[in-house]
């Protein structure tokens, strides 16, 4: 009986160790994948600026780089992707608007709270946000930050308004992803001189 008990215990410990290793790998792999993707996307962005019309970051990609988001105070620089799908969110912030970043003045960007938009918890009202597109750069100042319950308030995109909105799940330290709460950062354009 003792030998059978020892064998069962050995297999149980091996299975528990394997499970822990898989979860640990997954926890490390997601941020590593996101970081590698940003380097590949950076190269695609440079090709876009050089005139390539559909610069894909990797051969099987169904997205492309459409902008750069910078937060100078925090040293943040993120490549923004076209198409707000779950797959694209794994690689960087995405443009929620369907018309393209140059075709809208009310721009909404979304990203995961634990990777590309983890910096939102450090953002302050008044911080400078800089958005680079093929047309040039535009500076915005953070005016409002708020928690919104997506079950009670819908996202409204209004092209009569010139603004930049950053959107992510909330709270930042939630043990499980998703949920109905969103952290919404609204930034308005800096006044341009004469």
Q: Could you explain how this protein is built, in words?
A:
By secondary structure, the chain is an alpha+beta fold. The chain has a single domain, classed as Sortase (Sortase, Chain: A), CATH 2.40.260.10. It contains 2 helices and 8 strands, in the order H-E-E-H-E-E-E-E-E-E. It has helices at 2-49, 86-89, and strands at 65-71, 76-82, 94-95, 106-110, 128-133, 136-149, 163-169, 181-189. It has an 8-stranded mixed barrel. A hairpin with a 4-residue loop joins strand 1 and strand 2 (76-82). It is globular, with a radius of gyration of 21 Å. The N and C termini lie far apart (89 Å). 25% of the residues are buried. The model has no long low-confidence stretch (mean pLDDT 85).
Q: How would you briefly describe this protein structure?
A:
The protein is an alpha+beta fold. Helices cover 27% and strands 29% of the residues. It has a single domain, classed as Sortase, Chain: A, CATH 2.40.260.
Descriptive labels:
194 residues, Sortase, Chain: A, eight-stranded mixed barrel, alpha+beta
According to CATH, the fold-level topology is Sortase, Chain: A
Q: Biggest sheet: strands, sense, closure?
A: 8 strands, mixed, barrel
Strand content: 25-35%
Spatial gap, N to C terminus: 89 Å
The helix fraction, in percent, is 25-40%
* Rg measurement, Å: 21 Å
Secondary-structure element pattern, one letter each:
HEEHEEEEEE
Topology, pairings included?
Layout: H1 2-49, E1 65-71, E2 76-82, H2 86-89, E3 94-95, E4 106-110, E5 128-133, E6 136-149, E7 163-169, E8 181-189
Parallel strand pairs: 2-3, 4-7
Antiparallel strand pairs: 1-2, 1-5, 3-4, 5-6, 6-8, 7-8
């Amino acid at each position: 009986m003792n030998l059978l008990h020892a064998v069962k215990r050995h297999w149980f410990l091996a299975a528990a160790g394997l499970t822990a290793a898989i979860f640990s790998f997954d926890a490390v792999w997601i941020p590593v994948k996101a970081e590698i993707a940003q380097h590949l996307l950076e190269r695609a962005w440079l090709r876009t600026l050089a005139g390539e019309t559909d610069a894909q970051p990797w051969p099987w990609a169904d997205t492309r780089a459409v902008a750069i988001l910078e937060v100078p105070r925090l040293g943040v620089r993120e490549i923004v992707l076209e198409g707000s799908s779950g797959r694209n969110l794994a690689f960087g912030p995405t443009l929620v608007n369907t018309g393209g970043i140059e075709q809208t003045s009310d721009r909404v960007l979304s990203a995961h709270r634990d990777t590309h938009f983890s910096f939102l918890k450090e953002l302050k009202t008044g911080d400078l946000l800089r958005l680079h597109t093929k047309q040039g750069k535009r500076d915005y100042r953070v005016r409002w930050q708020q928690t919104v319950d997506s079950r009670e308030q819908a996202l409204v995109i209004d092209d009569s308004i010139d603004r930049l909105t950053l959107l992510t799940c909330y709270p930042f330290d939630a043990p499980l992803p998703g949920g109905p709460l969103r952290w919404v950062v609204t930034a308005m354009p800096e006044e341009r001189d004469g």
